Amino acid sequence: MICTSIQNKNYEEIIQLLGSEDIELAEIRLDLCTLNDEEIKALFSESDIPLVATCRISKDIHPREAERRLALAIESGAHYADLEIEAPANLSKAFQKMCLRNGTEIIRSYHNYEETPDNEVLQMALARCFRYGADIAKVVTTCHNEQDCERIMSMYSIVLEDQPSLQGKLIAFGMGEAGRNTRLQCLKRGAPFSYACTCPEEATAPGQWTSAQMSAELYKNHKGFYASGLKMPASKSFAQRAILAAALAEGTSELSGYTPCGDTDAAIAVAKELGAKVSIQDDVISITGISAHAGGLSLDEVCVGESGLLTRLMIPVLSVLNDKSFVINGHGTLPTRALSMAPDIMAAHGVLLSNKDKKDSKEVFVPLKVKGSLVPGNADVPGSGGSQIISGLLMALPLCSKDSHLFVSEPKSIPYMYITLDVLRHFGIQTRSEMEGDAQMLEEQDWSYCTGINFQIKGGQHYRAASFKIESDWSAAAAFLAAGAIFGSVEIEGLEMDSLQADLSIVDILVEAGAVVSQLEDNTVCVTKAPLEAFETDLNNAPDLFPVVAVLAAFCAGESSIAGVGRLVSKESNRAEAILQVLEQMGVEARIEGDDMFICGESLSSRLLSGRMLRGGQYSSRHDHRMVMALKLASIATESPIVIDDEACVGKSFPEFLEMFTQP
Hints:
By secondary structure, the chain is of the alpha/beta class. It is 35% helix and 22% strand. The strands form 7 sheets. An 8-stranded parallel sheet has the order 7-6-5-4-3-2-1-8.
């Protein structure tokens, strides 16, 4: 990326400059710009692009004044703050504490305005930068000849050979006309950004490019990704649960915010098979329920479309409602996806699952025979296989005549269980729950520390009609948000930041990777690109994010790790295998070790300058909607077009995705 240094400007002039298309990241020289305290606060708190706060100590700027101005910027939201390594020790310590307290990335910088010293001096300067707390070390010298340029640029190979973990954490280039090209080439070597000026008259040192010149040379014909005013479809996780609950209820429910997709429409079809009356007007579904009670139905078969969630919800629910054995059928990829752990979990409640068609496998698949009535009571069930069958039990057990206690050990996809409880609450079903594990970490909603969940479910309850709005879908938003973080900027309207949806964690992942994420008052989420670095995340609770997050990692400098590989096997495709194959075909180094996928990434700037764009060509989605979304995200930065064998499968969750993701 290109960081434009802004100096000798007042507040209004800076605001005007930040609105320029040529500026994607800016350094605000607090020592050289005319800004009062309130203007500094406003500038760093309201900017839509990442800002670097710099205040050089000089005869006009005392260290205490530099500290004060930097503090105002850091506490107001500066993305980065830069302090020279020659700063007094007390200022250095205070600066480091301020940055750590406010989540500001630390740049420690060394400048030599006379020469490019020998490698030993350069290495000592680099070591001092990191010893003084740098997240990014900036080493800038004056180059007089080609040998000086080679010496300063050799720092990248030296650093990466000795400490590969520092990839993307060094900015080294030469000043002077001789060093002019190093300002661009440093991006090719892995610098997170380089510095440019607004115009030749505002150059901070000889040889500096203007941001317009550098942008033209770096991006050439690459257009990036810019979108605003986007609206996501309804969360099918919420919609399917709500539609089924409305079908079970007494009275007429109205669910607003409906958008059609394959899985949601399959839930509507199931509601009708149960006997509910359904009508749709614009984005409102009206459902008159069946006043469900145990043994009130006598169905031979239901079809759940291609939805794994709907399959697992209907097994327990129909086991209560139906007065005889039944078959669950489906189509698409569903019959190829094993219902792992479901037979054992249902057996604990007196229900037997078996294959309708003879198979040479111990696993159970759709079409599925279900025999026996759901038995309430106490049961310990494993949660390591996911939440869907447990969500089905949470919907079904309240309809039983007696109370139940359900203990779920090693739970995964925990937020989805609580989505179920939230939907049930709307329809008058009350269930108590208590997590076991590290209390402090659970209070902070770090579900990886949850060792088990106790659910207390009162029997003899009845669903009552409800009216509410279905949330917009965070999983649908993920590809757009990642595109903004890597390639430009995105604004999506109507996303709830306090949602229970597990895929809300895409926000935390983008922030950890370095993107700028903000929220407007009307639930509009904004993501703007910034230098991206490797991250670690656990997607055991949000496996649907894995394909998009894997592509994001390919553009983050360094090696990222994503846990949750084991949750990917029984999705629409074997997603672990599919993701790894796609990354390798694109030329991205990746591997799986146990439950973790490791992905070696490289910044977009480095890929553009080195010619290491992702490879285009023929790709298979494996009929998996999430893989289509990930492939479309990757296609923004491929050397040739990507051709996907089956794009239509994206209609399973997001029929308008292809149209919305296409850039003008």
